[in-house]
Prior knowledge:
Layout: H1 6-44, H2 63-79, H3 83-102, H4 109-112, H5 115-130, H6 137-148
Helix pairs in contact: 1-2, 1-5, 2-3, 3-5
Amino acid sequence: xxxxxxxxxxxxxxxxxxxxxxxxxxxxxxxxxxxxxxxxxxxxxxxxxxxxxxxxxxxxxxxxxxxxxxxxxxxxxxxxxxxxxxxxxxxxxxxxxxxxxxxxxxxxxxxxxxxxxxxxxxxxxxxxxxxxxxxxxxxxxxxxxxxxxxxxxxx
Length: 155
């Protein structure tokens, strides 16, 4: 016997499915912007600067490399350009940050201050598998590439 709530739940599910690419695009943009802000803070001293204030050198290991990955990867993810490779590198960077910087201090992220690293790592890994969603520069490149490709020749 069907429930009275089924049509409402079904309708909500259909609307959520229609909104999925746009919500994913918003998620991608927010995560990319927040990540880019970390890189800009570390490299240029804006938004409070690097941890403890100031800046890091772009060539210093590992802080400088991390800051460059944060800034460049964040901008790429924000705009939806090369989203999957950028998200993959960013996810790996955050996994490294967690295990190299935070985990030696305590086991759990709540104890060692590694929650942002863990959240960014998993958010970027999600984008590797879902793609950029709607309104991404990646989709413009694919559309443009398809438009310039010659039509297949019938044999």
